Amino acid sequence: MQFEKLAFVDIETTGASPNVDRVIEIGVLRVEKGQLVKTYSTLVDPDCQISPFITNITGIVQKDVESAPSFHQIADDLRELLSGCTFVAHNVRFDYGFLKAEFARAGIDFDADHFCTAKLSRSLYPRYRRHNLDSIIRRHKITCENRHRAFDDAKVLWDFFQKVSSKFPQKRIISALGNVSKRTSWPAAIPKEQIANLPNTPGVYIFYGDNNVPIYVGKSINLKNRITSHFTDDIHSVKEMKITQQIKNIEVIETAGELGALILESNLIKKLMPVYNRQLRLSKSLTVAHAHKDVNGFATVKLLNTDEFPITAHNLDNILGVFKSKRQAQTALKKIADEHRLCKKLMGLEKGTARCFGYYLKKCDGACIKLESTNIYNLRFEIAFSKLKFKKWPFEQPIIIAESSSQKQENYLIDRWCFLKKMEEEDFFTTLKADEIKFDFDIYKILKSFLLNPKNQGKIRLFKPQVVLSEY
Known about the structure:
This protein has helices at residues 52-58, 62-66, 71-82, 92-105, 117-124, 133-139, 150-167, 170-180, 192-196, 223-229, 238-246, 258-272, 326-340, 357-360, 374-384, 441-451; strands spanning 5-13, 23-32, 35-43, 86-89, 114-116, 181-182, 203-208, 214-220, 249-254, 287-293, 299-305, 319-323, 399-404, 409-415, 418-423, 460-462. By secondary structure, it is an alpha+beta fold. The chain folds into 4 domains: 5-181, 2-Layer Sandwich (Nucleotidyltransferase, domain 5); 192-272, GIY-YIG endonuclease; 287-384, no CATH class; 399-462, no CATH class. It has a 6-stranded mixed β-sheet with strand order 3-2-1-4-5-6. A 4-stranded antiparallel β-sheet has the order 15-14-13-16, covered by helices on one side. Helix 12 (258-272) runs antiparallel to helix 16. The protein is globular, with a radius of gyration of 28 Å. 31% of the residues are buried. The model is unreliable at 466-472 (pLDDT under 50).
């Protein structure tokens, strides 16, 4: 990577998401061979409202940007200014990601080598804990007249770079820059035009290696940004380097939204078993903590393997928790017993017919020898497992979750935490066979997170088929 041409960049935006929010101000200082050769500063009309929160931080109000140019109007000039430069910003993923998204909306494919001044500060000053811009300003006695304005913050970065360049030997600076820099490193077998034509939409992507063997499956709300993020040279990510070296083909499957991408990714990983998806690759047997009651009415736990006790939509209420292994389950049960004064003997963690060891240590109230009320003990038992237990299905019937984008709409039929099928509008009156309905723990976690998010409530409606779903 060459550092002879640097562009120190800062932007202000309407929010934190490059896919939803917009740039409202840009500041750039172009430096060549250590000399400042050009500066650039402009407000940008985001074509949307600026929130009071952003105004409070930046001081930029709606009327300030109403007469400003749109990003589309400045895109060509800005691209020329940044051309050939290493892109420099503080927490560079934010600024770089936003400008890539804005350029993409303007029909321009923007890529640049880049490095982060926050990481540079950490590399050169590891003894300090804080490396945000305010800390750097104070630490290095840098003047910033208008904090949280794009040009002034960008100038802070140039001033900081000059200070460290004069304080540290050149070899040390070059070494630090090499450690914190990222460069685009396209897979040799993939034409750059194919990367340029990737969609900026939600969906799933599949990387194929030799003989068209799937090696990695991923998902994103912006396929192009996520896929290209794999192709940055990061010495800390051996996995990314290996994936990049092996890619021979890329397949993308667009979805209408994030939920569809999450469900499709989970299903494809289990189906294709790509080598670099280690977490979800194998549909492994899990350990289930199952609720029972002993002959005296005390709540107890049995640890069962999902091979012998499959999780279904019918038995979720009796499952106290799901674990990767029996050892992990036992560790969790011991911690719960200690925190809630539960009897480890009733929890299946101790054997014998006499009182448990915890009773002697005054960590058990005597449930094991019937000295404690079953009602009190069982209530404490219920509270202890309340966070681990499966969430109760919050609807009395199946639901439809509708996701839409400018490209498409998709509808997902869900019941009792099971993904049943993707439906078209004309398929809403349908039946479903019992053997089509399967509980998947990973899908449960996806759906739970989605349904508990208030912003998704408007996408949900009850499913009212003319024909009742087949029993299952």
